[in-house]
Here is the input.
Amino acid sequence: MRLGSLRAGLRKRAGAGAEVEAREWRGSVVLEGRARDWRSKVELGWYAAGFGYKGVVNDLEVEGLAPERPEAPGRPAGASLEGESFDVAVVGGGVVGCAIARELARWKVSVILLEKECDVAVHTSSRNDGMIHDGFAAKPGTLKARYNVEGNRLWGPLARELGIEFSRPGSLVLYDSRAAAALYPVMAARAAENRVEGWEFWGRGRVRAEEPGAPDSQRGGFFLPSAGVLSPYRATVALAECAAANGVRVSLETAVLGFDTEDARITRVRTNRGAFRAGAVVNAAGNWADHVAGYANDRFFSLHQRRGVDLVLDSRAGALQRHILAMPDLFQLHAKTKGGGLVVTTEGNVLVGPTAAEAPGREDYATSQAEMRELERHFRVNKLLSPSMVITYFAGVRPCTYEEDFVVERSDYVRNLVHAAGIQSPGLASAPAIAADVARSAIGILAERARVEPNPSFRAGRRAPVDPRRLSWEERAELVERRPDCGRIVCRCEEVSEGEVRDALRGLVPAASLDAVKRRTRAGAGRCHGGFCTPRVMEIIADEAGIPLPEVTKKGPGSPVALGRTKEAGRA
Amino acid sequence: MGETKSFVCVLCPRGCALEVDIGAPGPAPVRGNACPRGAEYGRLEAIDPRRSLTTTVATAFPGRPRLPVKSSGGIPLARLVEAARGLDSVLVDRPLRRGEVVAANLLGLGIDIVATDDLAAEELGDAMHGAGRAGEGA
Amino acid sequence: MLERLDRDVAVIGGGPAGLAAARAAASAGARVLVVEREERLGGILKQCVHEGFGLERFGEALAGPEYAAREAESALAAGAEARPGSFVARASREGGLFLLRCLRRGGAYELRARALVLATGCRERTDRQVLVQGDRPAGVLTAGLAQYLVNVQGLLPARRAVILGSGDIGLIMARRLTLEGAEVEGVYEIKAEPSGLSRNVRQCLEDFGIPLRLSTTVTAVHGKGRVAGVTLASVDQRGAPIRGSEREVECDGLVLSVGLIPENELAASLGLELDGLTRGPRADQSGACLAEGLYCCGNALHVNDLADYVSESGEAAGRAAAAYARGGPARRELLPVKAGSGVLYAVPQFLDLAAAGRGQVEAGARIYFRSNATLREGARLVLKAEGSGEVLLERSYRALRPPEMERVELELGRVPEGASALCLEISRKERGDGRD
Ligand SMILES: Cc1cc2nc3c(=O)[nH]c(=O)nc-3n(C[C@H](O)[C@H](O)[C@H](O)COP(=O)(O)OP(=O)(O)OC[C@H]3O[C@@H](n4cnc5c(N)ncnc54)[C@H](O)[C@@H]3O)c2cc1C
Ligand SMILES: Cc1cc2nc3c(=O)[nH]c(=O)nc-3n(C[C@H](O)[C@H](O)[C@H](O)COP(=O)(O)OP(=O)(O)OC[C@H]3O[C@@H](n4cnc5c(N)ncnc54)[C@H](O)[C@@H]3O)c2cc1C
Ligand code: SF4
Here is the structure.
């Protein structure tokens, strides 16, 4: 029946030269054999997702494309974990893992957060638009819709607790066709279904008054006031620091390589720093979450990758736009993600994008000329902006299941494993809500064996680093008297001082590379792109870490900024 | 018969395209030069090209790890890289003024290497804190 | 306590432009303070260890630091004061004065001045601004940053470098890297001719056998941690990569020399509109901008290729700023200077005809310009008065190239009554048929 018609349909769609088999496994369906190409593999996966299985495990091979394996990490310097024991191990230091770790800290349990990179927020959590979506665009009835709307509400108080900037400029979706008006009732119904509040329809005149740069062709728009923005990497760092301040052990450069299981329980977590015992394990491994599930023989879904590229405009651009702007193609309302637009960040830059394209490469952040061109069409949405304002661009990769929804659940088969996987867009917006549920599940697992008490000394906030930009001139002058190094500006474009860089290097989750400093302080994120601050920040890193200058890296081991010193040739 | 060599004069930003006839007896005729210095340069360049060397030498001071220097005269072009390597082992360990000799008679060519910047005593601290207060007047 | 200072003239930037302005203003009797964010005076010249500065000004070929040190000494000797290590965070007007909010280690201070000279220099265009694609490893850097690493910090940014762009700083860095023991695989230029001076092609590349490949660009960078190589492609006449011409080259660093941009955030924050071509504020022959009491000079005004010209423009600005600070606003009579056919841009954008009467202009007004095309076979420049059509000045050149800035001097008395503007035009010499 179901499997039979799926097989027939797959064969029909697979095309000549392909060989596709399907079998059931623990309520999921596994696709095996060979697909014509990557595109076809993804399409077959989507097709299979329509058959109502728990998940689609897409193991189709594609000629010329070896299955991706995580890079084997070396044994890093620092503490070994061999023989240690934790109540909960969280795998993945993205926004989701860090938010979960912080939620877990509300309980009297020992928690370790494991991140394979030398900082948190290295992958998708620092490569996105920083938008806290209103929740309107998510398909009603999905986890995405539920967590997004809930997460959107939670971010307000959470940002205050963490001391990070968060604002709600609202999202304005413009239409350029008269027929758009006919859609308004449909949109109102969708908003009601997703429980998105406060929306309004704006006429042409109102749009023009609010956004002088809106195109002349606009015919009004749909305004969603709850849409917000924040700095995704600052938010992730803040969550991790708050977790650390409450006793969570944040272990960087620590890759989970496998699990030992016994009686359908994970007993030990194996890492490049040694193996340790864990009472419960949370899988928040982003683009590798299907692999991590596989380490526990619980791979009931698989991830395909959807690239997204954004252009970053000079911070001058931020003054030319008030709201998040988009002007979607009406015929693309059902595309897998919304079509991108123009987002004003908390720092005043404007992000143009993102694109959305299926492509292999879980950590492939190379950009291409074609992607730049594709993004140019967004400039029509605000005619005050222009491509000459581009200061940089970046790519990110969304981890997507074939069901195109989040996987947030306790494993059906491994008794102490909880998944927070397939967290594609709007994963940042949803993170606080996902974290609350996941932490509850993990605590539930522990509670099956012993009583778990709330942590009475939990502090929801953290000691936020000084952010001189938010001070008045007089306050700033006072700060410089107290902290002399806050008067020495090392990044001219973003006006970052030596003091802020030192704070970042001394944080609870310390920055150790130029990029890590940039994520925390914005030194090097401005229009000169590190031309001025690089040597100065290098000197401060070397000084704080007590290492010679040539050992300073851009983004961790293997990425030194300099390859030694001059004068070495003739002296050797 | 003589031959004609053509090259760009490097003495000033104007960069005149020079042509020099060599092989004939007497001072070689130079064409294309907009000034007399170019003629002299062209004649020498055709037979014995030389360049002044501008580079850096190491210091013992973390606040100013390198000191810019130049050669007091032209070094044969073919030996320029060799001359630079010869300076790799020089270490300046005292404050000095620009113009002072840092290395004498480089490669036995009779040419000295002189400092082109000052290295003032008060700026020789560590990389950031003691860094130069040079010229501070207010 | 917030420190408060008062001066006649405030100068932002202690490079050659700012130092010359400070010296000129101090010599004219003004109380001057130079605010410089780096720990030492001299601006970008501190890191330009090569020779060739000062031929015009001092009649000798000095190294950058020598030139800078001389200028710093003479500014201080003339009575100007300087505060290195301080950063101007905000500039505004308050009453009739400029208010600068400055930060330095251990203290913030406010500086009020009657006249303000902007001498903030320029910054470099980055790989992103020329849309280099591919991975994001360490080892991609601008030539100016490479220059700082090598010349000031003594670090080697690459052992085998590819240089993109044949601007002068790129050419000079090719030689510096070679002399410091690295290998330069080649210099690649998207245009059909080098952007830098011919002498630098000769003495920085040819002297060392470093290849220069024209009509070629870098389309992508490869490498995860550190640069492992780049993809090169030949380009067509419009600069677009030609499909099928891609080739990969192994290297561990990519150094970019793809242009400089005047640094004018403070100018913009004071409400000055920037010229789309020069990307600096518009100004008259003494650097006076369209807002009263505000002057701009050096690379902040437009990108110069000669430090000597930078100092010259600083002097003019400093002198005028001192006169303004001590005498108050004066009547100006502004006549636009236009870049006509064959001219890439001309600076200043205005001549103040009334300046002659105030004794600020000695010999006359200097007009700097660049041609918009390479004219190898000779070129002719004319300066015309619009309205009367009278030719005020004519000059012949053996060659003109966009990278080589030229300068002419005009006596203000020669401008005819009733001229509505001046216009600069360049044509090929022989045929006089304009540009190509
Ligand atoms: C271009 C783009 C724009 C987007 N815009 C938005 C937006 O505006 N709003 C929004 O809400 N969402 C947006 N998203 C989605 C959002 O960024 C993600 O949903 C979110 O960042 C996912 O966070 P994460 O913690 O699950 O993943 P990640 O940030 O990828 O974190 C997972 C971490 O796990 C680590 N890891 C993996 N395997 C192991 C292992 N074996 N051992 C140890 N560590 C491991 C990884 O190194 C990684 O750091 C966007 C995404 C993209 C690509
Ligand atoms: C990397 C590089 C290499 C160059 N190489 C050469 C060369 O070889 N030969 C040549 O003739 N020309 C060269 N040039 C051009 C050179 O810049 C000029 O010749 C000359 O140095 C410009 O002088 P300036 O005073 O206008 O600017 P700069 O020398 O750049 O001085 C500007 C000064 O202003 C300061 N400043 C800026 N903003 C602030 C602020 N907000 N607060 C306080 N201080 C501030 C800066 O720190 C700097 O010291 C180079 C330029 C660059 C960028
Ligand atoms: S010949 Fe004279 S003018 Fe011409 S480049 Fe040489 S020194 Fe300059």
Remarks:
- Residues 431-436 of chain C have pLDDT under 50 and may be disordered.
